[in-house]
């Protein structure tokens, strides 16, 4: 059971039609993807909320489909995170959290993905936003190069986040950029994803890793090895990390996540296996039929 796992594992989304016949049975309807997904993984990135706010009806449907142990890392919408002043978005942030309130503790942490243009001169603005945010779990991803330069800007950022127990999301894209294929999917992913140093921080009880993988599963192993040791160590320290697996077009993201878990099991004997898909999920009980 994913509820028993000592860490959270998942993919960027649950709504990939390409996962039919691999993660989902071939005849799975899109409306049933989430219920099927939660049978295997216990967390998901909330990329969908970055691009558009869901309707109240959609949130209600998610609440029916997500088990209580499941975690949905909802991204703050980009009109908030990519605004000229975060402090002018406090009301919009409160409205967004109210919209997702039916999900309760399953939204944890919220994610604030800042653009590459958000640099050191805006740290005071970020501090004010965090102060107004309150105690709700929050994790932040930064992309400005100065926050990875090991200078005062990075130290100031880390002090700010660590003091408030706010996790600094680590995005590791090295495996993706090691790929020399010229396929449209790889080129598109390399154009969208940042190429920055890794920062495996643990500023809260739940360190956050986004692993952007190579399209060939075996090619990811050298890049995963340090993370397997790190995640195993975090778990042994009593932390509960989050790990999200991506591939260039995400067709193989579930397989990469499974591969991570299988190799983590070699470091943590007794780690539960990921469950296989049920032949017939109880969708009627979830209110989805």
Defining traits:
289 residues, alpha/beta, TIM Barrel, 6-stranded parallel beta sheet, 9 strands, globular
Polypeptide structure, described:
- With 289 residues, the chain is an alpha/beta fold.
- The chain has a single domain (2-267), classed as TIM Barrel, CATH 3.20.20.410.
- It is built from eleven helices and nine strands.
- The protein has helices at 33-37, 47-51, 56-65, 78-81, 90-99, 123-133, 152-164, 174-177, 184-192, 221-236, 253-267; strands at 8-11, 43-46, 71-74, 110-113, 138-141, 167-168, 170-172, 208-212, 242-246.
- Strands 3-2-1-9-8-7 form a six-stranded parallel beta sheet. It has a three-stranded parallel beta sheet with strand order 4-5-6, with helices on one face.
- β8 (208-212), α10 and β9 (242-246) form a beta-alpha-beta unit.
- α10 (221-236) crosses α11 (253-267).
- The longest helix has 16 residues, at 221-236.
- The model is unreliable at 278-289 (pLDDT under 50).
Number of helices: 11
Please outline the major beta sheet. 6 strands, parallel
Q: Which CATH first-tier class would you pick?
A: Alpha Beta
Helix fraction, binned, reads: 25-40%
Strand runs, count: 9
Task: Specify the structural class.
Answer: alpha/beta
Instruction: Give the number of domains.
Output: 1
What is the architecture at the second tier of CATH?
Alpha-Beta Barrel
Cα-based radius of gyration, to the nearest Å: 19 Å
Distance, first to last CA: 24 Å
Range of strand content: 5-15%
Q: Can you identify the CATH superfamily?
A: Protein of unknown function UPF0759
N-to-C order of helices and strands = EHEHHEHHEHEHEEHHEHEH
Query: Which of globular, elongated, flat, extended, rod-shaped describes the shape?
Result: globular
CATH topology group: TIM Barrel
Query: In terms of per-residue confidence, which ranges show pLDDT below 50 for 5 or more consecutive residues?
Result: 278-289
* Average pLDDT level: 93
Strands ordered across the widest β-sheet: 3-2-1-9-8-7
